[in-house]
Amino acid sequence: MKINLPHAELNALPNIELPLQEITDINLFDNSFSEIPEGIYNMNNLKVLNISANKLKEISPNIKKLNELTMMDLGHNQIEKIPSEIEYLTNLEDYLYLHNNKFETIPPEIKHLKKLKYLNLSDNHFTELPSEIGELTNLVELRIMNNKLQNIPESFGMLTNIRELHLRNNLLSTLPELFEGLKILRVLDMEENQLKQVPKSLKYCKMLRRLNLRHNQLTALPDEIGNLENLLELDLRSNHLTELPESLMDMKGLDRLDLRWNHDLEIPKWLEKIEKNGCIVYL
Fold first, then answer.
1. pLDDT of 179-194, one tens digit each?
2. Cys-Cys link to 37, which of 13, 18, 135, 158 (CB 3.0-4.6 A)?
3. Distances (CA, A) of 135 to 12, 112, 155
């Protein structure tokens, strides 16, 4: 049974004339709740909880009672702390959305969410992440955009099922050589960081389709980047590149190459060959 109460200006649960055990899905999007209503913790068979875009400031340890949840959206609130009791939500599988809050840390107990496929931590105040995130080996998509990350743990190299990794707008100046195990990665978004070099281990991501390195501090690219033979889009706009490796010609399927705003870049003659292969080059 689903309870659907979005945009209702609620700050308390209305009377629900149903046994709470029969409710499997509750949508309280865009209301005025300052906390998760206690009644929800008695919904023992709840699978889906959406209480995003409210005024939540904390999550009660009682969250552990909702151990049947497969999807939970707490995005767009004012929550500052994730309780360690999140470790009991071991059935979370489809998604956990924690974006647009005020989190600064994640408890290491998050490692127990072994089934989780989609995790969104964007638009918070993270400066670092626990190595235990690397134990979420079923993750397919991880979003940590618009934070203050200065590094990412090497344990990210254990995320062997990851297809999309979004780290846009952080403070990353280097990336560890962790990409050898990320063989099915499709999208890597590193726009708006402070990267000075591209890790050579990226060459193992042969399934990569989109690589966004716009607005960084790159002066050169490794020759190994040519191993990304399935790459469709490469965005290098607004860096400090002075030259390009000839291995870019090995990217036979490249559709789009953006080189704008690299003011000291020497344009090689062989770039014309890439254009003749059908790639649109922006200079």
1. 999 999 999 999 999 9
2. 13
3. 37, 8, 8
